[in-house]
Each structure stands twice: as C-alpha cells, then as structure tokens.
Amino acid sequence: MADNAPTTAVLLCNLGTPQAPTTAALRSYLAEFLSDPRVVEIPRAAWWPILHGIILRTRPARSAAKYRSIWTAEGSPLLLWTQKQALMLQGWLAQAGLPTTVLPAMRYGQPAIAAQLQALMAQGVQRVLVLPLYPQYSATTIASVNDAVNQWSTGVRALPELRFVNGYHDQSDYIAALAQSVRQHWQREGGRAEKLLISFHGIPQRNVRLGDPYAEQCHATTELLARELQLNSGEYQLSFQSRFGRAEWLQPYTEPTAIALAQGGTRSLDVICPGFTSDCLETLEEINQEVRDAFLKAGGQSFRYIPCLNDSHAWITALSRIAQQHLAGWPVADKNTSQIAA
Ligand SMILES: C=CC1=C(C)c2cc3[nH]c(cc4nc(cc5[nH]c(cc1n2)c(C)c5CCC(=O)O)C(CCC(=O)O)=C4C)c(C)c3C=C
Ligand SMILES: [Fe+2]
Ligand SMILES: [Fe+2]
C-alpha cells in the first residue's frame, strides 16, 4: 500500500454487462441480473420456473446476437465508457484538490461491487462515496446498487465510512451537459430535426404505483432539458424503451411513438437517451438500430441518434461536481501530513 494513497474513494457504479457476446456469457449475466428481487419483484416460487425454465433457455442466444452487433475490439461499450469515466473523474477530482481513488464497479458481472470495495480496503481507504451512473432514482437500479454494497458490508469487520448518492436527475451540470450534447449534435447535422424524442429506460408501471419516483424524475429531467434548449411543447416528446415481459411498463413506449410520429408526418427525428450516461446495448442497438429501422419503415426520412454523455468534458465536469457536493465535509487527508484539503 502506497503511503500517500488517498484515503477517500469513489465507487462509480453501473449496471453491468456480459463478459462476452456469447450465449453462455449472456446466460450467466442474465441469471444474475434477473435473479435480483429489485429487478423482478414476482415471488421467487413463481419466478424461478419462468426464469430457469423459459427465459434462460431462450433469451441468451437472442441477446448475444444483439450484443455482437455493438461489441468492439476492446469489449462491451458500457464497460469501456465506465472505465474511462472513472479514470477521468479521478483526474478531475485531483485537479480540484481532492486526491481520491475512483474505481468502476458493476452491479452484475465484472468488476463486481464487492471485489472493488475489497480492493479499496486493501489500499487503506477509509471513506467510500457510492456514485451510481443512473441520474434518475429507481429501486430497480440505485437501490439495487446499495443492496450490493450493504450485502458486502455484512461480511466486513472494520467498515469504511459509506455515503450513497441517490441520483441527480435535476442537477444543473448534468442538465447543462445534456443540453450541450444536443446543441453540438444540431451544429454537426446543420440544424434541428422536426422533433426531439427523449427516451428513457422503462420500468413496470406497478413499481411507480408502489412509490418508485423514477417516472416523475424522468419527466422532471425532460422538462429541465427542454427549458434549457428553449423548446416548446410541440418540439419534443418523452418516451420509455426496453420493455421486458408482458406487464404494463411506463408509457408511451419508444418504438410505437417513433412509428406514430412517422405515420403522422414527422419526417426527421433527433433521439436522445438522458437516463443512460454511457452508450450500451439499449442505445446502440435498441434505439440506433431497431427504433431507427421502425421509424424509417413507417415513412420517416431522417433518424439522428445523439450519443450518450460518455466521456464528454461537460459530463465529467458534472460528475466531478456531483462527487464534490457529496464528498463535502469529509476530510481528504494525506496519510503523511494529515493535511486536510480545503
Ligand atoms: C438506465 C436505467 C435502467 C433501468 C431503470 C433498468 C431497468 C430494468 N432493466 C431490465 C431488464 C434488462 N435490461 C437490460 C439491459 C440494460 N439495462 C440498462 C439500464 C437500466 N435498466 C442498461 C444500461 C442495459 C444495457 C447493458 C449493456 O450491457 O449494454 C437487459 C439485458 C439485455 C437484454 O437481454 O435485453 C435486460 C434483460 C428490467 C427487467 C428492468 C426493471 C424492472
Ligand atoms: Fe435494463
Ligand atoms: Fe433492450
């Protein structure tokens, strides 16, 4: 352990991704993901036969084919962006006078949350800020990350101090980073499309009825972004993608919305996904391949996908400000000098 290693860390948590775009890797990833009771709330006795008897026999091959269409020579886009964001955030925080170790971690798959927390303990870290890469709070995502941290804690005697960020759907730097990415897109493309479709990952409608604030936060992000871009109500539309299973999910659904827009005469569409901070299967394949094809087939002429925030400077600045807001009050001590950063 280096004597001058930071004693404070940020664990930058994302959803996770399969190890490889293969049926076997997808089976193991989906088994872990879909066994999480935060994700599927059906009683275990009823869910197990469906998961193991049907879903894990059929879905892995189909999902693997989709992953193959977005996989890069270096691996899964979601993992690569998350790793890059962690490195950049560590640099930004150091520049701000907060020497902090930043490690990426995945809720499902590798690098696992428990293993990364263990690595931080081995470095002598005493305080950990758990920062999820989901701007909008949902029990299916952020609470599940917290569960994984708390599960790890149950086996640890000398715990670090822990803080959890519960989302930042209305944080001004996050909204500014989104607005900047839209403006840059308009500049690159030589102007606006007729409509901006703002698509978020869905969740079951039932979760919202039971108190999940996710839908409300997606709406709030949308309104803040539209206001920042000075869009009037006819120039943008919110929708929800990635429905899983047969239950009713948040509506309107993205693909039928894009089709209805094309059939209603909208010829050009810009699409942004503010709930995803890294490009991944859900944006690169579902939006930029499936929804694109559906829009064009229904009569649309121009479908323009706006990339996620990924490694944009505005986004890393936002992440750094969000981290600093939540690190406030924690001593950032150098072990040698016990100096406290201002
Ligand atoms: C951004 C927030 C996300 C929420 C909310 C969310 C809820 C949720 N997801 C599923 C089921 C699946 N999601 C899958 C992929 C996936 N989901 C998110 C994010 C959210 N999910 C991301 C970033 C990704 C892509 C990961 C990648 O490797 O690129 C998948 C796996 C792919 C597939 O087989 O379709 C499933 C399954 C549920 C059931 C749910 C809420 C109840
Ligand atoms: Fe998902
Ligand atoms: Fe999907």
Summarize the SSE layout with pairings.
Layout (H helix, E strand, L loop, with lengths): L7 E9 L6 H12 L9 H25 L8 H19 L5 E8 L4 H10 L4 E6 L6 H15 L7 E4 L7 H18 L5 E7 L3 H5 L4 H15 L7 E6 L12 H10 L4 E5 L8 H17 L4 E4 L7 H15 L15
Parallel strand pairs: 1-2, 1-3, 3-4, 5-6, 5-7, 7-8
Helix pairs in contact: 1-2, 3-11, 6-8, 6-11, 9-10
The protein binds the ligand C=CC1=C(C)c2cc3[nH]c(cc4nc(cc5[nH]c(cc1n2)c(C)c5CCC(=O)O)C(CCC(=O)O)=C4C)c(C)c3C=C and fe (ii) ion (FE2) (2 copies).
The site of one fe (ii) ion has 2 residues, from loops.
What is the structure about, briefly put?
InterPro entries: Ferrochelatase (IPR001015), Ferrochelatase_AS (IPR019772), Ferrochelatase_C (IPR033644), Ferrochelatase_N (IPR033659). The chain is of the alpha/beta class.
Q: In words, what does this structure look like?
A:
With 342 residues, this protein is an alpha/beta fold. It has 2 domains: 8-169 and 313-327, Rossmann fold (3-Layer(aba) Sandwich), CATH 3.40.50; 172-305, Rossmann fold, CATH 3.40.50.1400. The protein has 11 helices and 8 strands. It has helices at residues 23-34, 44-68, 77-95, 113-122, 139-153, 172-189, 205-209, 214-228, 254-263, 281-297, 313-327; strands at residues 8-16, 101-108, 127-132, 161-164, 195-201, 236-241, 268-272, 302-305. The strands form 2 sheets. The chain has a 4-stranded parallel β-sheet, with helices on both faces. A 4-stranded parallel β-sheet has the order 6-5-7-8, with helices on both faces. Helix 5 links the parallel strand 3 and strand 4 (161-164). Helix 1 packs antiparallel against helix 2 (44-68). The longest helix is centred in the first third of the chain and has 25 residues, at 44-68. It is globular. Mean pLDDT is 96; it is low at 336-342. The structure holds ligand L6N33NVT and fe (ii) ion (FE2) (2 copies). The site of one fe (ii) ion has 3 residues, from helix 10.
